[in-house]
Amino acid sequence: MSDIAAASAAGDRGEAEPSCRGLIVVRHPAEPAAASDEAVRLRRELEAARCRHAAELADLRGQLLDARKQASLGELVGTTTHEFNNALTTILNYARMGLRHRDQPTRDKALERILSAGTRAAKITASVLSMSRNRTTRFEPVDLVMLTEDMLVLLEREMMKYRVQVEREFAPVPRVSANPSQLQQVLLNLLVNARQAMSGGGRLILRLSHDEATGFVDLMVRDTGCGMTPDVMRRIFEPHFTTKSGPDETGKGGSGMGLASCREIIESHRGRIRVESAPGKGTAITIRLPMLAIQSADRRGA
Asked: What letters, b where the CB count within 10 A reaches 16 and e where it falls short, cover 84-121?
């Protein structure tokens, strides 16, 4: 009876139900393996999707850069056609003069002018071909002095038309490892922007320098135009932001994609772009690119 009473008392205290504390739950061995296999499968699918999306994004960026380059070339069609026509007109006129006049001094002068115009036409053609032929992302050693001069050939008459005086301050600088076509696109955009900022004429200063200590080459494009307010400065790298109402009479500019594209290209070259401007004092844009040796070492270590 004492045992029955003890059991009854325990039931009254709520201790009749067995406790789960101390119990060990044994799962079927297949359950964790199945869950692990499913997690591995999901991770692989996610990684494959990430790689696929990254490849698609890289391809779209390449297509966008190519489209922007073609748009830049399209803007140059009118200018280069006019430049080439001027050269041909010069050649034809002096050829006629040489045929009309039999004296040697006149013929010598005509031949010199024909040679000069022909050389200029060849430079224009070479510059346009250089921009149009390279559609790859391949990097190669680039001479910034030569690249800048090629761009100036295409815009020389335009600068003269708008009374823009071009000043070169080129120090000897090392080459950089770059995609020539993309750098041409950047420089063309900066030169056109500078010219458009000086509607009444002015000075365009191009400066090349380098710093051995930092390992960078600097290319500065400076104009004496209208400059920018702080509000505009804060937004200049935003895609589609522009202070222009549309393309000018030469068909250039107005899309708002220029500087955004420039920054993307320069950053892909492991470089930097800096803008300094003030209303009424002009604008200076400096591109900083790693010297060839420094950049090549970085790419090998990446």
From this structure: eeebeebbeebeeebeeeeeeeebeebeebbeebeebb
Q: Which of these, 165, 254, 171, lies nearest to 204 by C-alpha position?
A: 165
The residue behind tokens 């001479």 is 143
Which residue carries 């190669």 as its tokens?
A: 140
- Tens of pLDDT, residue by residue over 268-281, are 999 999 999 999 99
Task: Domain 58-301: give its CATH code.
Answer: 3.30.565.10
Write out pLDDT tens, residues 117-167. Answer: 898 888 888 777 766 665 566 889 999 999 999 888 888 888 988 999 999
Give the integer Cα–Cα distance in Å for 142 and 208: 14
Question: Where exactly are the structural domains of the chain?
Answer: 58-301
Q: Tell me if the pTM is above 0.85.
A: no
